[in-house]
């Protein structure tokens, strides 16, 4: 750090003095700093300081506004490195405040490029430009002869227009033509209301939180639970909102209100209340929507609303369900608009070994402290990879064999199925509509399992349940992919459990985490065509691995080219071949001899 200071005082002339300075007093101090090693100068620095006397400006102030030039032909800032007003910026040779004496201090270290003042450099396509290291032979034929006032940086190539951002609206214009506003819903389309807005019901987002203004999609069922308290409780859409049926007509919701009798299933107390008077309010505990549909239209909407009292300090688990029922089917089964699975749909399971063939495939849904004793289960949804678990309390004197059996039993409780439906509309009476679950048990008769001779340590504990579902895209229905399940495998991963304790291990309980994961693996519907020996050995002819594809040299003449009719491509190809053959004949020496002899 170098500091230059002035030891004497600088003062202007007194008001009544006759011999006064025409310019403010100024002292210029120049300091040179050298960095040396073994009498060898490695670097040098010149510091010049101008110190003026304190004075106030007494001149005339111009009120003329600064004229901003047209940015299309002249840059707004001709010297971008000029950052300090009224002073010289070091290494900024285009700064007008820098005097020639100051520029000598950094004349060889000036900023280059646009920041140094070269705001309109010659571009590479200019004929007089020599910026490219390698200039091809055809550059003189294709270069641009233009002045620097019309370049890719300035001129007519840049207009400086500004795009005004548009704030997306929650309202969606369907059609402006008179008459019917809609031509029917397709699977996945948002349901609209009479006010041309989304029909929204609280749903669960990808982050696991509940979103209150989530649109309801056509033919997509869901069942969500949202946690709320009295302070954060918000009312949803009023039930008198009419819904667009899909043909331009509007239907009214059929609402039935009921009162919750057993509120303990929905409410939990978060803290003990010491106040004698507790504030309570009548809120919505659950809403069940049933949409009756036919083809692309909604015929009827039935809503059942369960009400109850929620007090301050209580946590409410709200439940919202949406189910679509076909008008031609009276029993509550899944809609069959697309027989294949869609993302978020329930994976259908069946237990063919029981009299009641209905089955389930679930994963853990922990609650509270995450213990397995209080955890519930949730069904597996198609296309959504999941990972969940819970904590199992284990004593230090736990028998390893009993522990393995207890863990296996809890994981087996999640899988109450022997078969999984290939499609969303698989029939329980047709065994061909189902695939058998491939189960890889953690232990069999040929496996030697260690009994665990050490206290508090048990090896080979099957604590991880792995569910792998293989599916494929087998077609499309009305443009929506049709996906089917091909195989399901269930396996277990073992861990070594060791009791964890603090200073004292007696009369304490350790926790063993047991998990369940679901992985969806997509495979092609048909096996890929195997590579030939030529494709494996001669990779330079493989068009998928190289930029130059010689087999496609005559691609426009092949049947694979679909840009033009094949007859036109063939005619153009024959014409091109004729001209090439004609050029080869005319360039041959014997043709010139024949032509000269014919003239003689």
Task: Sum this structure up briefly.
With 600 residues, this protein is mainly beta.
Account of the protein in words:
By secondary structure, the chain is mainly β. The protein has five domains: 1-53, no CATH class; 80-143, no CATH class; 189-270 and 277-326, no CATH class; 345-443 and 455-522, no CATH class; 534-589, no CATH class. Helix content is 10%, strand content 30%. It contains six helices and 22 strands. It has helices at 100-103, 139-142, 400-412, 533-537, 566-586, 589-599, and strands at 26-37, 40-52, 203-204, 210-211, 222-229, 243-244, 250-251, 254-259, 267-269, 280-294, 297-311, 314-326, 349-350, 360-365, 376-379, 386-395, 415-416, 419-421, 434-439, 457-477, 480-498, 509-522. It has a seven-stranded mixed beta sheet with strand order 13-18-19-21-20-22-16, covered by helices on one side. Strand 3 (203-204) and strand 4 (210-211) form a beta hairpin. The protein starts with 25 loop residues before the first strand and ends with a helix. The model is unreliable at 170-181 and 330-336 (pLDDT under 50). Part of the tectonic-like complex (also named B9 complex). One of its GO terms (biological process) is cilium assembly. Belongs to the tectonic family.
Keyphrases for this structure?
single chain; 600 residues; mainly beta; seven-stranded mixed beta sheet; six-stranded mixed beta sheet; 6 helices; 22 strands; 10% helix; TCTN1-3_dom; TECT2 protein
